[in-house]
Amino acid sequence: MESLEEFRARARSWLADVGPLEVPADPDARFDVLRRWQRTLFDAGWVGLAWSREAGGSGLTHAHQLVFVEELVRARAPQPVGLIGLEVVGPSIDRYGTDEQRRELLPRLLSGDDIWCQGFSEPDAGSDLASLRTRAVADGADLLVTGQKIWTSWAHKAQWCALLVRTDPSVRKQAGISYLLVDMASPGITARPIRQMTGDQEFCEVFLDEVRVPRRNLLGAENEGWAIATHTLGSERGAATLRRRVELEVALEDAVDALRSRGTLGHRARAAVGRAHVAMRVLDAQTRRTTERLLADAGPTPVDSVDKLVLNEVEQTVFAEIAALLGPLRAVPGSRPAGLGSGRWAHEHLYSRAASIYGGSSQIQRTIVAERLLGLPRG
């Protein structure tokens, strides 16, 4: 197997040869460009590095995957558009899926031919996900699904959805949930984008009206979806923490370079950058332990909630400190106070406010830490 040093050099050389990728501001155009970028990465063998060859991957180690993430970010290259499939849904399909599901779904997920969304949260079941009400009732060889999901990223663009549904309302709420793989072209599905305060529209609300889903599209056994959902969320938190750490480091480097180039790295800016650097060192220490767990193939654990809490706080601290240097000009498109482009940094700051909500709110993560790590009684 290729050593990490050789692999890093090859990745760095390939990214340099490809050169910078122009990513348009228009959301639809950006989606299309990033989807083609995922196909480029896949064709060159850079997607699914740590996935098994049977699942369509390269059969390398998690260490190789981490190295490529670092090089991709440091080259200022964008992430592929299908991260929900690659980091969140795909690992659960690989682990719990049937041979047929893995063979038919995973190669297209890796290449970006199929984009996946995650149908977990509902208007009345976000942080308390186990209270979900979307139901699936038996109808011969199919299940009929009716309900509503929300905050479903890229649902209006996705070909498939990992959907949590209630299949047995008579048992405790975690026990009656099933995990379905749903074709988004199925009749009865309506996806409506929601404009966020950043101006983006990747979030959607999704309505399901007696959507017919074959039973063969169950992931795992009926009524045993909660354990798989826990695996999905754990995969999301671990992968996002490691990737986001590098992205935050590069963002902070870019901000410091911009301040230096304009000669505006004065006392106030140095203090703000210093606070951001302290936060980053905390995240760096935490992700060292995350990396150890990942390389040991320990799988999702309650410690993933600690990762998520630390990442939330650090991400919001870093971008709040940078945004504070923009002053009131952060609201003026195209302005460059202190050499910092208002568009990028105001967007990053606004988006960071959601970090403590998506992927499981901070309140829920603290409950998991209290009950599962510290052994405290339920409140």
TrEMBL record:
Chain ranges of the Acyl-CoA dehydrogenase/oxidase N-terminal domain: 2-113
Pfam families associated with the record: Acyl-CoA_dh_1 (PF00441), Acyl-CoA_dh_M (PF02770), Acyl-CoA_dh_N (PF02771)
Entry keyword annotation includes Oxidoreductase: yes
Presence of the UniProt keyword Flavoprotein in the record: yes
Highest taxon of source: Bacteria
Family: Belongs to the acyl-CoA dehydrogenase family.
Protein name (database record): Acyl-CoA dehydrogenase
Organism in which the protein naturally occurs: Pseudonocardia sulfidoxydans NBRC 16205
